[in-house]
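Hello,

I think I submitted the magnesium ion job twice by accident. Can you confirm which output corresponds to this input? Input:
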Amino acid sequence: MKTLLLKSHRSDIQKAGELLKNGGLVGIPTETVYGLAADAGNGAAVAEIFRAKGRPMDNPLIVHISRMAQLEGLISVFPEKARQLAAAFWPGPLTIILPKKEGVPDEVTAGLDTVAVRFPAHPVARAIIEAAGCPLAAPSANSSGKPSPTTAMHVMDDMNGKIAAVVDGGDCGVGVESTVITLATEPPRLLRPGGITPEELEAIIGPVEIDPAVTHQLAEGQQAASPGMKYKHYSPEADVILVKGSAAQYAAYVNAHKGDDVYAMCFTEDAGLLDVPVVPYGDAEHPETQAHLLFECLRKLDEMGAKTVYAHCPAETGVGLAVYNRILRAAGFEVIDCTEG
Ligand code: AMP
Ligand code: MG
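Support: Only one job matched these inputs. Its output is below.
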């Protein structure tokens, strides 16, 4: 299959809408990462997403809407706290899990009785949903397990020849996937951290539990509240190791382990302290920048031929929690703590 690289002007957006209406798969820009979209009402088209990504069938997708009226066909109840979150954060990088309406294809929800919904803020994403005329099911547009794509070229790298088209809408602002919260249980529970922080959620709806899988590896056989949490994820070819400590502690550890194809994914201010090649992913104090650069840096490290990457651990606060959660998975939970001794 030839994959079209479309632009974000009106006629190309119409073309993307036609392809989606006809059951095709299209890579679309959003404010979080690029999504791999299909008509959410077309189970056969949605099944193709799993094939293109090599995604396990038990990992459900997020349904993207461009108007509130579309919720009607997707969810069976819209609780008060969901209304409050939608009013505060939609359109934006927040996914809300709610009891699903019968008729949402099992391919979308992996057979669960809940559905994940998001109203993206990106104008091109919204225009494509409007052009398709239906909600779009879309996970991130990477091959399963790889870092999520934040440019149209990243999508092409993984999906060329496997999908109908990619719409180029520039690079993604947030850079990590949406915050996922479930309101299908009480109290509400954060399943995946993202651009909307736990503090921001709690300011609107009160206490929110943080699912243990956000910061810890699930034990063998333990059930994941969000199926995506149980897989190794976001990983480049290189072995990633997360290192906790001050700039000096981090640099001392990395310099003691330098060798062929050893790289540092460090903070900007660490760079001068390191004796190995560096790929900085922002200042230690700016988690928003780290989120924006993270996946691009992981892809870049592969291009550079890195075999081992020591990543400097971000602070787990605010948007930093999302950055920490993604690197922890990229590292397969391998963490070196240099803060003691
Ligand atoms: P992606 O954005 O590519 O990471 O894929 C969507 C994420 O949302 C995955 O981590 C899924 O496990 C999660 N998700 C989607 N639907 C549900 C649901 N009904 N319940 C829990 N998690 C969900
Ligand atoms: Mg993903």
